[in-house]
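Colleagues,

Please find the record for the two-part complex below.
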Amino acid sequence: MLKTNKMVKILFLPIVFFFLFFLIVPLLYMFWQSLKKGNSITIQNYVEALQSVEIREAFLNSFQVSFVAAVITTCLAFALAYAMHFTTMNQHLKKLVHIGVTLPMLLPTITYGFVLLYTFGNQGILTKLLGQPLVTIYGFNGLLIGYVLYTLPVAFILMQNSMQYIDKRFLLVSMLMHDRPSRRFYHTVFRPMIGTIGGAFILTFILSFTDFGIPASVGGGYKVIATELYQAMLGSIVRFEQGAVISVLMLVPAVLGIVMLSVLDRFNFQYKHVSQSALAVHRLRDNTFTVLSLVCVSVIFIIFSTMFIVPFTKGYPYDFSFTLEHVQNVLAEKNLTRVYMNSLIVAFFTAILGVCIAFVSALLNVRTPLKGRSTLDFASMITNTVPGMVLGLSYLFFFNGSSLKGTFFIIIAYTVVHFFTTPYLMAKNSLQKMDPTWEVTGELLKDSWLQTVIRVILPNIRPTIFQMFSYYFLNAMVTVSGVIFLVSTKTMLVSTRIKELQHFAKYTDIFVLSIFILCTNLIVKLGCDYITTNKEKFKEM
Amino acid sequence: MLELKNISKSYKNKNVLRDINLTIDSGEIVSLLGPSGCGKTTLLNIVLGLTEQTDGQLFYNGQDISKQSMQDRGFNIVFQDFALFPHLNAYDNIVYGLKNKKQQMSKAEIQEYVDFLELAPHLHKKIHELSGGQKQRVSIARTLVMQPKILLLDEPLSALDGVIKESIKERIKSIARQFKLTTIIVTHDPEEALTLSDKVLIINEGTVSQYGTPHEILKTPKNQFVEDFILKQLHIKRHNIYQLFGESYA
């Protein structure tokens, strides 16, 4: 057994303080605020909020549209993942589907809304082609399409991952046992996927329920809970108590979701071996899924194509001649380039700090006998549960009077905390897979614990570190929901600036900025992927 | 009776199997023996109907089955790692295929298989609660209730520990006798093949090196490969065991 040494404790302390100050205390403080009325402690605020017709309506609307979106997304994601893993669809098409479905992840959700307006709205491409609007995009329809676009990548990646670990040889067993197709599907695909399907549903529901970017752009008169919260805090009449109450109410479905996820976990099982066996060709099945995949990817590309057309045309939708004027205008405007630099700074430092915290937390949790190391799992569970808007709002309450208010640091801290779960689990996963005897070997060879970490563990976890960096960077570039409460005029980010530009109807600028974000994210992602795969190739040699 | 005539298999420009000829009588146990990558698993898959041969024909009781699908052939296989459905318990795995059969099997008949494989105490256990040997027997039961015309076993002993190996060997022999079931086993272990089967097909680099009874192979190895790969290993084993026990135990 390894002894807990001083170094481990020295590393543990700041992390504990970080989560205490930037997660636990602000949330508790906000909860306390929701109970305060004047100088007394009461549940009066909750009673008032629940009696308010507007809040009730917004809550119900949110529930409704998120539920429908989650059903659609889950079905689509399942079908697309099935096409990737259980059909003999063309390999290039499989790659294209993967790229097409996950590409929207590189954009802020607020952009989705404007893209939808330009595609389905009165001046939209589809409207021009069809002669009249296909659907009214403001309100329910727009939210629904936006949420599906927003959550499809996440659900798709979840399903894909899970299907990867299904033992394909059971298809063969099922054939040998003379199963009908429906029974084969149930036992070899559906049953093993039930846990993931439920998980994807809950996750997409919560994401939609708590998203701010999409309703901010296409919500129109359709009230949802996220916009109500924004109105309460940053609207014309500020009602702090009501804001606190709404954000606590927003937590409820999130908490319920997490509880349900742990129940669903019981349906999961693992295959001992995962063997790949050649899939039988089945014309009808393969063709059906090829068509479905093509349709999905085309729809996504068509919707987002406006983003690339509008900024490069003279006077969309009347004059389609090519111009760089709009891009030059944005580049010339110091204000906008500074906002872009701000975003870069925040994303970069978020990624650096985030990777450090997530890696050290995972390291302490997995590879040391440190007492209290399970608190880190607890922290990751909470960050996974608390919606971005709620966390951002709790910072607004807690740091309001402090000197941290309006600094880059608070935005970075928020982003690090909000997106902590995934990188933490990534690091944990890799660390768990590593040989558990390395530290002992290191100690026997007279290395200190820290030396072993630097000389043995770090070089072996490098690909994961780059993936964590890329995850943090990308999300920091696109996040809107929490940071709207935290930015000041000095620390304005691209994603929040888009929200402002909306007021002046400067949609071309919005798209130019969105393209900047997309390109930056693509470069970072491709760079990190390149480093990761190169390292792996090197290992194989 | 199963007959293989001039079976060949090639992938793109690589020959995996060349001109395999083989006759297996009903109720016989035959091992396909050879080093890894020699093509023995490919041959097993061709018999099963999972892989299509590039050339040659297969006959079952005189009928040409070369173009028949895996399902129509009615052979069945027990996989090396058993491939039991992890979400079903032992009993549900055993009766899994019965639900697809027109002719229902009576409870008593199922019980017969269960008793024969001594699985009665384990029927309601989950798959991960079973030992390796128990999983193996569940997997065999699941295959046997389908009443296959030929039973194929892919490395049936490689996932089991030493002690259980010998008892499973006996079990496989008694299954073949009891159900008069033609059994084909893939293995890379000469000792296993020679002690388990009526006949052994030694394959090297895609061709038949020797086909005969264990006795014939030991007495008259046909070529250098059989001597090097098969006999030498057994001699070393014998030598080691003699050293442990002393010559007097021979």
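The radius of gyration of chain B is 19 Å.

Comments are welcome before we finalize the supplementary table.
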